[in-house]
């Protein structure tokens, strides 16, 4: 094929002492010309490459414009040929310099076959990725030489890691504007997946039936806040959900090397309060149905020990990853989550709990409210970037304790302005049993009998109050809670119990 373009964009590279050596960024104009020619001869070639190749991947700007115009015509069901494209480029000065409409005809005339079209496209894509890598490396060098006073080396590493992650996930995040038709396709695909999935959920199932019905599952890119006072069971519920999602993980490995998640997901659990061993003990306790207190104190029978061993063996392959590092910053959480998604995949991110995260030193100096605002905004941005739900636990202020009705409200959130604003879903966990148990009257009195009736009604019942949900209803969901096993489950109400027959 005749090479019609002879363009040199030199970049200075270190050479000898007497002369400088120049080299241009990686590119292949012949591959770009061959692909465009194949598309203009047979529009079917565009279908083979449009899934991964974008105009931005072309080195030569005029080639990018030709590809974009041809793709637009083909999407509209029209023919893309030198004749139909001519009107789009009559006033294109760059194309005029290399022959104008004649150049389009020469591209098509020089094309031989569409068999190698995908290979040409892969070459173009690969070279574009390498050019972007050069840009990232250049930015790292420049930033390292000219670092602002308030920025540390760790911040530079995290910035570089984010740039590399976005490059690795190219086409999924940070690509600017996209046609509305593409967004429509994604919305229809989500609806189709929900229709085909058991339970009709568009998000990841928590395996708590009533909660799933209210939320539609945990939705990708959502920031979900789970708040409550101490001893309500925040960590227990988060652990239960994390285990259920990881245990349900099922994936299909495709011939092209990608993985399609069919159910559940890989879970990252940032435990800033409890150690990894304590979390593992909780999960073993839930699954072996042995009190975690008995496990810690060693007061277990031989049969219970064998049960623990069996459960532990079953949990070995669980795709649940725990990071129990204390005092993490939001930037460190983001960097570690990106790394896990790149290496293992990621379906759900859990943070226990939000107030133990640190923001940047600049925001911390401005006050705790500004720091928490930065943390919640960053968590929401991270959920969108990684396309996974983030479940972040949060504490409530003490003002709950001063009310007769101790059910939490949105105003009870610490630094409620930023948390309430940035969250897609805010849930509160409340157990009447906890508060009522502390008000026991003297035995053998009418008050005690009335108290006992109330206790019978609320024992083992936990309320999850959905105070905010951007794309669904609010309301209360009742769950069963076993405090000895710190385990939540579906609540079977009296009117749903099976009938007994003599």
Helix-strand layout with pairing:
Elements: E1 10-13, E2 21-24, H1 29-41, H2 44-49, H3 61-75, H4 82-86, H5 93-97, H6 101-110, H7 117-145, H8 153-168, H9 180-196, H10 209-215, E3 223-228, H11 234-247, E4 250-253, E5 259-263, E6 267-271, H12 276-288, H13 292-297, H14 302-315, E7 320-323, H15 330-343, E8 348-352, H16 361-366, H17 368-386, E9 390-395, H18 416-422, E10 425-430, H19 432-436, H20 446-458, E11 461-469, E12 475-482, E13 487-490
Parallel strand pairs: 3-9, 3-10, 6-7, 6-8, 8-9
Antiparallel strand pairs: 1-2, 4-5, 10-11, 11-12, 12-13
Helix pairs in contact: 1-3, 1-6, 1-7, 7-8, 8-15, 11-12, 12-14, 15-17, 17-18
Characterize this entry briefly:
This protein is an alpha/beta fold. Helix content is 47%, strand content 14%.
How would you describe this structure in keywords?
disordered N terminus; nine-stranded mixed sheet; DNAb Helicase, Chain A; Rossmann fold; single chain; 20 helices; alpha/beta
Helix content: 40-55%
CATH superfamily of the largest domain: P-loop containing nucleotide triphosphate hydrolases
CATH architecture of the largest domain: 3-Layer(aba) Sandwich
Q: Give the distance, in angstroms, between the N- and C-terminal Cα atoms.
A: 90 Å
How many separate helices?
20
Low-confidence sequence ranges: 1-20
- What is the arithmetic mean of pLDDT? 79
Structural class: alpha/beta
Count of DSSP E strands?
Answer: 13
What is the 3D form?
elongated
Number of domains: 2
Strand content: 5-15%
Per the CATH scheme, the topology name of the largest domain is Rossmann fold
Largest beta-sheet characterization: 9 strands, mixed
